[in-house]
Amino acid sequence: MSNSIEIADKLVSQILSGKYNPHDKLPSENEAADQYQVPRTTARKAYERLEELGYIYKKQGKGSYVKDRNKQIELVLSGDVSFSQKMIEKGYDFQSETLFCREINYIKKIYNYLETEQEERVFKIGRLRYIEQQPIALHISYVAKSVFNDIDAVGMEISSMFKYYNSKGYTEFCSKPSILSVSLPTKLQRQVLNCNSFIPLLVLESGCTDKKTGRVLEYVRIYYRSDCFSCVIP
Predict the structure, then answer these.
(1) What is the pTM of this model?
(2) Which domains are delineated in the chain?
(3) What mean pLDDT is reported for the chain?
C-alpha cells in the first residue's frame, strides 16, 4: 500500500514523462484510491500536495487538471534593465507595492557590499511585485544615505529603483556578480507572497553600480516564487 507522498511522486513522474499534458484531467480521487489501493483520504492528501507544489489545479465540482508549467514567466537575470521594465515590455499586467523603507542596523556583509563605513546610515526598501494581481516576487534594496541623501524621505514613494537613480543623474548601470540560491519561505514570506511552505523561493543576491563612476548604488536581495518563473542566465 502506498502513502500520499509516494502517490504524489508517481503522478509527478507521469506528468513530467508526458503521460498527462497541460490541462488534461487526472483520475478522480476515488479512482486514484482504487488504483493505489489506499483510503480516499490518502489520495486526497496526494492531490493536495500536487496542488501545493503547482503541478495541478482544481475545477470546482469537475476534478483535478494538470497545470501548464510552460506558462511560467521567463526571467532574464541581468542587471541593466529594471524588473518593472522587463515585465511591462513582456506585456504583463504588472503592479508594484512599496511595503517599507527603514534604516537597518550595521550588517557587515551589506555595508561591505555598499562600500560604506560602519557609522554611515543604510536603508532598506521592500517592494512587492504583482503579475495579474498575484504576488510573485519580493525585492529588498539596500542603499546608503551618503549616496542618496533623501532616501529616508522618499523611499516609500519609490516603485522603481532605476527610475529613482535616473532622477539622481545615474543613467547607465551594470550589475555586480550575482548569487542565485534556493530557500524555503519563512512564515512572513509565505504571508507576503501568498504561497505555502512547499513552494521554494529563488533568491537572487546582486548589486547595481553606476557605469561612469563605478559607484555602488545598491545591494539587492530578491525572492522569486519558483512556481511563477523560469530563469534565463545570460
Answers:
(1) 0.75
(2) 4-70 (1.10.10.10), 72-232 (3.40.1410.10)
(3) 87
